[in-house]
Structure prediction request, 374 residues.
Amino acid sequence: MSKIRITVLFGGQSSEHEVSRISAQCVLENIDRSRFEIQTIGITKKGEWLKYEGDISLIGSGQWEEIARRQLRERKNAGLLSRYIENVPTLRALINYDDKDNSGETVDVVFPVLHGPNGEDGSVQGLLQLADVPYVGCNILASAAGMDKAFSKLVFANAGIPQADYIVVMRSEINEKIEDILGKVTEKFGWPCFVKPANAGSSVGVSKVKRPDDLMSALQYAAEYDAKILIEEFIKGREVECAVLGNDNPIASTVGEILPSNEFYDYNAKYIDGKSVTIIPADIEPSIMEQVREYAVKAFKALGCSGLSRVDFFVEESGRVVLNEINTMPGFTDISMYSKLWEASGIPYTELITRLIELALENYRQKTRSYERK
Ligand SMILES: Nc1ncnc2c1ncn2[C@@H]1O[C@H](COP(=O)(O)OP(=O)(O)O)[C@@H](O)[C@H]1O
Ligand SMILES: [Mg+2]
Prediction:
């Protein structure tokens, strides 16, 4: 049987570029090479798409980029998006297996191991859809809706899933309307509250605001990352996460708990100090665990996800489960919560990657069938 050809996309222009590189390196180190043939394309922070044919252990550190540039010069074969964008069918060539001689061989599945805006938000998914290539993970709509925390709140509320109360503020309103905004926060939920960019990830731009005097600077900080900002009611509770896998009939993993090393699970606690602890399975009552898993699948379906998502919650002291957010392309190293949850639920990392690729092909076949009927 010939191997399925996979293109792994990594990097990207979001603030989660580094996280994506580490996830991708791990995927490349663990993917089943007896079944899959791999090529890698890195997206630089400037947005260039560079085919990379070097040592995969140089991806996480960022050293890949210089090598990829050298390879590009040697090939004199631009891997840059701009060369292909004029003509939609030739988008295929961008992710094509062998665009040197136009042999017509194409990639079978793209795995966009990309986090954050312009990666996890439907834009790359749209590009892949135009190129008519199956890809791992959620489609354009679910990716875009899942990335925008204000928008996904509407969908989850409609599905009846409890969430923190919130106010949406636009960057352009911060200076003029700060008095109004302060009044609304005090009236709706008070202090402390959380301020976060609607479209971001890895806790960038997120602050806990304890006093009204600190709201302005928190809003300005969040506004560095997005024009749309959320102010949220503070939820006092334990943080738990659940992994979901599948297409139309998704399954939920066991539940894991995060014990952040800082006051909340900020960027430092996630990636820098190495002191945050994850507990799998979470030490919570079985009925609460079931509630989390049920809401995770409900959230996945409500948003129309496919392939994978990690759904994050708070569990209040009373036992009430409150949804925090969904991640349609969660961190994907072999020690990331998503993969550890599946490992604990009986699906080892390499098999998880294989299943995701199979789900991508299944999803593509379903979609193609509906196109053909028209
Ligand atoms: N409403 C809230 N109440 C309490 N803690 C929160 C709230 N919102 C966010 N946090 C804390 O901030 C962290 C990052 O916020 P989150 O909304 O998950 O953003 P990101 O997409 O960047 O991970 C959470 O993991 C949690 O520790
Ligand atoms: Mg989060």
Notes: The chain has three domains: 4-135, 146-161+236-356, 166-233.
